[in-house]
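Notebook entry, structure prediction.
Reason for the run: the old model in the group folder had no record of what sequence produced it. Starting over properly, with the input documented here first.
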Amino acid sequence: MRTVYLSGGKNVESLVLYDQPVPVPSRGEVRVRMLAHTLNHIDLWVLSGSPAYSVSLPHVMGSEGVGVVDALGEGIAPEFSLEVGASVALSPGQGCLVCELCRSGLESLCPSYRVLGGHIQGVFSEYVCLPASRLLPVPPSIDPLQASAVTLAGATAHQGLVVRGGARPGERWLVVGASGGVGHLACLLASVLRLEVYGTYGPEKKKEILARFMNIPLVSHDAAEWPEQLLKLSGKPFDGVLDTVGGATIPKILPLLRKGGRAVIIGETTGAPTQFLTRELFGRQLSLHGVYLAHRSDILAMLGWVAGGNIRPIVDDVGPLTSIAPLQRAYKRMLERDFVGKLGFTWQ
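New structure, fully documented this time:
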């Protein structure tokens, strides 16, 4: 079977496609024949050697994927209801599953929370063996690439907008970074939830692509006066802002909120340092939430929206992965911000 390894260095050029034997599931594990994968910004942090994901080499890349159950190890608990041939999505993050945080649905706060491809070996392989608890059912009607797109990016959008942000129908929300993986799915979800949604994007060429998939007001956050442009478009401050860019954008989004508004920070793709006036928080009684990935309930919710035809993720298929070159080109596109939505590949 083929596996994507990071070997010899932490850069795109060090990625290799390696042939190795098909793994045998241990007790409590399930072997999944992978069909499709999508890329995530976590991959770029691993490739850059970020201390947040300090992996040892060689390292199997990848956090997101969908496949079918190929074999069951011994001791699979009946409550998982897994059988050979069933479509499953991989849960990218998982805690210990036994502490109070995990049992109450706050899994990403667990001290043992680990992310596939980031903290531990990833899943960019034709076959993977994982604990049964890492697998979630996928309605067979969903395209594998579409399903993979919501396992991390889509679930994070749901956690940020619905769970932490508490978005309610009729509210006015801004999504900063609407052209990215989390951002575009947050915009699509916001429309389904009947929010009045606005979005920002980076390079001007992304606007045309975004406009094909969503009918919302859009402003480039590369423009000098983009906050003023948004207020002019909306006519009123926002109830909430979901920021997937972070860093330099945070001081600019807080003044856009109404009194008592909520800001949800999901990423820091710019890598820029952040400074803002604390009086923005206490003076206007704003709420500032940080979101790191999501929980299995968020994945299931997003899979339900996709299965019902309410949300259709934007996924550019760069595969099939018959050599490492398509994946290397895809990561270079991510580094150059030359994409909209998600990038993904298949094995067939």
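Summary: The two ends are 12 Å apart (CA to CA).
The old model has been moved to the deprecated folder.
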